[in-house]
């Protein structure tokens, strides 16, 4: 553990802006009573949860324009070191208009800037320069326009020969292509795993079958997250189901990112599989209990950890 680093990669960051209005009314000017900006991006969520657990990480990604500068400053203020490739386009902003009276909302997402080939090449150069044995990299989220599906696969091909450990959390074509480069661990949720294997993941048997589809490709560990039902953490030799306690849930967005941070926390401590699963679920569920995305406290995670039930298969 000494001298080893954790690096998170967020190719498609976003500023999530929430405007609270007393009530949503169409064809009129509404006045915001509160404005909140969150530094959105799945790798950033992992970095935030790791920090809450006392582990520093470096966040990499692409940012552009004034929005990108604000995002970088926001992460710095949270105490997260970053190293970004600056792009010509403007980092996107997703807007939520939330009505205080009804709880209804309107959400508008931007597609985001299209990345240029030289910007992608610059990022891969950074990876090449930073690749070191013993480090752990988490590659997180969707890919922005202009980035090829095999972007994560390219990163894995750069890191693996150097002896870095790569964790991949994405979906669709980026997951499929990434798996071909054989990362150390993948973290699909039930829906992403179902899309990968081409059959639904409802039961524990479905989950075990889906996990084996990843393991057969040579991936060492599969963390198949199952929402309120917890996690299946599997290797070719062993499988553990970890189930969280029933808790009051406030916001499940980013719970999977928190789970990944919990797994990294346990992996960095060389804990056995069942303990990794417990810390993963504890961080995921602690995040689901919090209004904010990527927000947990160390006490909150530890409180859930004590109540996670594991069973080996
Ligand atoms: N309703 C819930 N109650 C308790 N814990 C939950 C709930 N939803 C999620 N969790 C916790 O969070 C973990 C990850 O959840 P989930 O499978 O929904 O991830 P995800 O779909 O990848 O989320 P995201 O991509 O938004 O971060 C679960 O394993 C569990 O520990
Ligand atoms: Mg997820």
Characterization of this structure:
- The structure is a single chain.
- The protein has helices spanning 42-52, 65-78, 117-130, 151-159, 172-180, 190-197, 204-215, 255-268, 273-288, 298-305, and strands spanning 6-10, 14-21, 34-40, 58-64, 82-87, 92-99, 105-108, 136-140, 165-169, 185-186, 221-225, 231-234, 239-243, 309-312.
- It is globular and about 60 Å long.
- It has one domain: 3-Layer(aba) Sandwich (UDP-N-acetylmuramoyl-L-alanine:D-glutamate ligase), CATH 3.40.1190.20.
- The model has no long low-confidence stretch (mean pLDDT 96).
- Strand 4, helix 2 and strand 5 form a beta-alpha-beta unit.
- Helix 8 runs antiparallel to helix 9 and helix 9 crosses helix 10.
- The strands form 2 sheets. A 10-stranded mixed β-sheet has the order 5-4-1-8-9-10-11-12-13-14, sandwiched between helices.
- 37% of the residues lie in helices and 24% in strands.
- It has 10 helices and 14 strands.
- It is an alpha/beta fold and 313 residues long.
- It binds adenosine-5'-triphosphate and magnesium ion.
- Magnesium ion binds at residues 169, 189, 256.
Features:
alpha/beta; ten-stranded mixed sheet; 10 helices; 14 strands; globular; binds magnesium ion
Structural class: alpha/beta
Spatial extent as radius of gyration: 19 Å
Please summarize the sheet with the most strands.
Answer: 10 strands, mixed
Label the overall shape: globular
CATH-defined topology:
UDP-N-acetylmuramoyl-L-alanine:D-glutamate ligase
Tally the beta strands. Answer: 14
Helix-residue proportion: 25-40%
């Amino acid at each position: 553990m000494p001298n080893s680093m954790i690096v998170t990669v967020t190719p498609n960051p976003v500023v999530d802006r929430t405007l609270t209005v007393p009530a949503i009314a169409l064809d009129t000017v509404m006045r915001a009573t509160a404005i909140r900006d969150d530094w959105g991006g799945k790798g950033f969520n992992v970095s935030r949860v790791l920090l809450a657990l006392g582990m520093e990480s470096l966040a990499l990604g692409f940012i552009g324009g004034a929005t990108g500068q604000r995002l970088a400053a926001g992460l710095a203020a949270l105490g997260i070191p970053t190293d970004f490739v600056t792009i010509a386009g403007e980092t996107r902003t997703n807007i939520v208009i939330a009505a205080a009276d009804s709880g209804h909302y309107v959400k508008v997402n931007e597609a985001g800037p299209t990345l240029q080939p030289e910007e992608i090449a610059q990022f891969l150069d950074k990876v090449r320069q930073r690749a070191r044995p013993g480090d752990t990299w988490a590659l997180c989220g969707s890919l922005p326009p202009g980035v090829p599906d095999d972007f994560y696969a390219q990163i894995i091909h750069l890191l693996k020969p150097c002896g870095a450990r790569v964790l991949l959390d994405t979906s669709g074509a980026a997951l499929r292509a990434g798996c071909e480069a054989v990362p150390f661990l993948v973290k699909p949720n039930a829906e992403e795993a179902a899309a990968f294997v081409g059959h639904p993941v409802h039961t524990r048997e479905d989950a075990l079958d889906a996990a084996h589809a990843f393991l057969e490709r040579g991936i060492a560990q599969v963390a198949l997250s199952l929402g309120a039902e917890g996690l299946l953490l599997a290797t070719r030799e062993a499988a553990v189901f970890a189930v969280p306690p029933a808790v009051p849930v406030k916001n499940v967005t980013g719970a999977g990112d928190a789970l990944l941070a919990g797994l990294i926390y346990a992996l960095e401590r060389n804990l056995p599989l069942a303990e990794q699963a417990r810390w993963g679920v504890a961080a995921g569920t602690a995040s689901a209990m919090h209004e904010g995305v990527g927000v947990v406290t160390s006490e909150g995670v530890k409180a859930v950890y004590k109540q996670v039930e594991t069973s080996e298969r």
